[in-house]
Amino acid sequence: MSKSNLIGILAAVVVIVSAFLPWLTIESKQLVFTGIDTTGSSFGEPGRVNVFMAIIAAALFAANKWWAGRVNLFISGFLLAWTFRNFLLFSRVEMGEWPHREIGLYLSLGGAIVVFICVLMMKVKQKK
């Protein structure tokens, strides 16, 4: 297993852990949102998709087959796009309420970027 595979697995774990950390705080209403718990808002639970995609990406990094690299490119691309969407969605101003972005949102985006870069740098065994 190459270094990029190990770093990709670690970055996927960071994405999973960041779904349970605080993503956003709205101080006027004393609300703290995580990727999993967004009670009091209409955000839904976008962290569940992050966790699901990160688990699949980590499993494909561990597989290290020729087909796993191609599937992982799609999965990690979707993970990066979904995480960027969450970053934009959670950090917007609504009705004059300025949210305070927390560490979980930044870790999620950073982890997804690293996962995608590791897929691009991944060395896979060629089909014979």
UniProtKB/TrEMBL annotation:
Domain of life: Bacteria
TM helices/strands, residue ranges: 7-26, 46-64, 71-91, 103-122
This protein's record includes keyword Membrane: yes
Keyword annotations from UniProtKB, A to Z: Membrane, Transmembrane, Transmembrane helix
Protein name: Uncharacterized protein
Native source organism of the sequence: Chitinophaga defluvii
